[in-house]
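During the first year of the project, the team set up a workflow for recording each protein of interest as an amino acid sequence followed immediately by a discrete structure-token representation. This format lets reviewers and collaborators read both layers of information side by side without switching files. As required by the reporting guidelines, we include two representative entries from the current panel. The first entry is reproduced here exactly as it appears in our internal archive.
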Amino acid sequence: MAQPVLRLHAAPGEIDAEAWNALLAMQAAPSPFMRHEYLDALHRSGSATPEHGWTPQFATLWRGKTLLAACPLYIKDHSYGEYVFDWAWANAYEQHGLAYYPKALVAVPFTPVPGTRLLARDADSRALLVQGLVQFCKEAELSSLHLLFGADEDIAACADHGLMLRNTVQFHWSNQPGDSTAGYADFDAFLASLSHDKRKKIRQERRKVADAGVRFRWSRGSDISPADWDFFYRCYARTYREHGNAPYLSRDFFQRMADTLPEAWLLFIAERDGKPIASSLIALSVDGAAADAPRVAYGRYWGALERVDCLHFDACYYQPLAWCIDHGVQRFEGGAQGEHKMARALMPVKTTSAHWLAHPAFADAVERFLEREGEGIENYMQHLDERSPFKSPG
């Protein structure tokens, strides 16, 4: 039998989209952000390119003409847009006269969403892909390899190959009250599951937005008009600039999403006196589910042109959660960081990344650091669980 061969690609467009997506559909935890259309749009729109410190080296593993495994691989000369922070590691390298950059990264740029990163036909193929990635890093004399927000299968394969594991915390909402496998009947039923003070707070916040004369409308997929995409991007770009940053994603990127992956997007627009004033863009799972019944929704981007008290909470949480309940969506992922999400019933969930460092002494130091950090994460999770917004049993 022929030995597997690892190939590197200077752009996702060099890989057959149908073959990539077919491999993605075989995974236990696919997401729209690992679709070929999404990754290709990041490159073609100029959002994730060598000019911005993201040099694609997408990896594919072949046996003859059979694609066994694949992953998005980038060579990075900075750590922006990753959301698993290793700046302290880079500083430590610099203080010792060593180069931390360039490093290798298996991740979706600017997208802290858990899911499959190592697309593989089986566990053996996934293990061979990890082995090939580490060997590539050694031969290229890269400082390190990092796999971010991986699925359980990815993390197990990395751990088996000696990579160090690191946990972070996100906040996700589940459409399964208590021990029930059925979703909430409606938004009021969801509110009824919360403690009195949390239920009262949410109603007060929604009332403030309604009393300010704000109304919401939503559209999905091809029903999102070009004018609505333009308005959304105005909001998105303004939010970044208000924080002193240029937006990661270009208008062309979102146009490519509208053209090539429209079914993955849900847009909420807030209006006052018939005038749009804010928007919230939600991503939807598109693999392994009927087109009209996504399993997972992902809170992604938001922005406003006018300030209204509590508008952010309504646009980014309450409107999407109500939509998820009405459409039978199982889970809403609120993204990285933000304990305030717990007051909206998004509960803490651990996410995991895997790391390999070439320098033995630094690898040992980082491993000790991760042990201490891991203990802190466990204590933090326990502390958060004690602050559950749901009614106490009984």
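The second entry, processed by the same pipeline in the following quarter, appears below.
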Amino acid sequence: MRTPLATIILTAAVAVSGCSEKGLKDIKPQGAGPDEFSVLPVKPLTAPKDYSFLPAPTPGGANLTDPNPQAEAVVALGGSAAALNARQVPSQDQALITASSRYGVPANTRQVLAQEDAEFRKRQGRFTRIRLFPVDRYEQAYRKQSLDPYKQVQGLRRQGYDTPAAPPFGE
């Protein structure tokens, strides 16, 4: 009589232990959360060369230390910040703009992708809601879309491409 009772208790303990600690890869959203693209670092403060020639304050206006990521990216890539401020595309970039927008540029790309991804995860998770042990939901949902890096390296090497050293298998 003690063996079946011990088996039932052990089975219940194992089943309950699978329900604990979902971990970071449980891809169900915990809430709206912060928008990681809205957090921008500011430029360091600098002392002016001459305090007698300071510009007048502009309430609600921009400061010198306020970030402007679009202008900084344009300048870093060799463009002109003045052209960005005037919303003009340089003449040498017209062909690139035309080629990249030939199929149209939807304004709601993020929202559409988020909705499609939520529907995809819902379809993938229909039969995985009941589980005895913690599982990697991210790996389950995107298993068919993942690449095996070792197969890719071997395939490229067979085709004659130089590839960097890959980590040993299993690491």
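For the second entry, the following points were noted during internal review. The chain is about 40% helix and 0% strand. The chain has a mean pLDDT of 78. Both points are flagged for discussion at the upcoming steering committee meeting.
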